[in-house]
Design goal:
Strand content: 25-35%
Number of helices: 3
Largest sheet: 5 strands, mixed
Shape: elongated
Distance between the termini: 55 Å
Order of helices and strands: EHEEHEHEEEEE
Helix content: 10-25%
Structural class: alpha/beta
């Protein structure tokens, strides 16, 4: 980066209930990829606002973050005597936990949005799922890198997923299978 140039990554604001957010009851909390597109209007408004405050001699490069889309497939075990509705509740709560945690808006360890450049580890997903009420054991967790709308583009993550400094984790589609204990 040349001296005097500042790069700013802009994450478009998305609220629950906006079009493309929570649109599918099977993927609660998932943000549609088109909602993360940096519009010309947002870029221009941010440029205008920041131009008023930037030091003389600096230039601004406004861009969207690098989005790293992940899908999680987990197999968990509910209590031995859990009924089918109870297992379905466990599945829904586990999915909600994944979509909430792996979000640029509500994710990360502090729930304030996935931090730029923060590594994702499989062990933290085991811990996240283990905290779901009425879930006894997390049998398996698999994470794959995906590209929304391109199911053939998948790369399995083992151990951890290091992130570039300008990157954010975003949930693609997660799957949770609940077995009876």
């Amino acid at each position: 980066m040349p001296p005097g140039q500042v790069t700013v990554a802009l994450l478009p604001e998305v609220r629950p209930g906006d079009p493309g957010v929570d649109a599918d009851p099977l993927t609660p909390g998932r943000v549609a990829p088109e909602r993360l597109t940096l519009s010309a209007e947002l870029r221009a408004a941010a440029q205008e606002e920041l131009d008023l405050r930037r030091p003389v001699g600096t230039t601004l490069d406004l861009r969207a973050p690098q989005y790293v889309w992940v899908s999680v497939t987990a197999t968990v075990r509910a209590a031995h005597a859990a009924s089918r509705p109870a297992r379905e509740d466990v599945r829904r709560r586990a999915l909600h936990a994944l979509y909430t945690y792996l979000s640029p808006y509500t994710g990360g360890p502090d729930g304030q949005g996935w931090p730029f450049g923060r590594t994702l580890t499989l062990s933290e997903l085991y811990g996240l799922l283990r905290a779901v009420p009425d879930l006894e054991v997390v049998e398996d967790v698999q994470v794959v890198l995906t590209e929304p709308g391109q199911p053939e583009t998948r790369e399995v993550v083992t151990g951890s997923l290091p992130m570039p400094p300008q990157a954010l984790i975003v949930s693609d589609v997660h799957h949770v299978r609940v077995e009876q204990g």
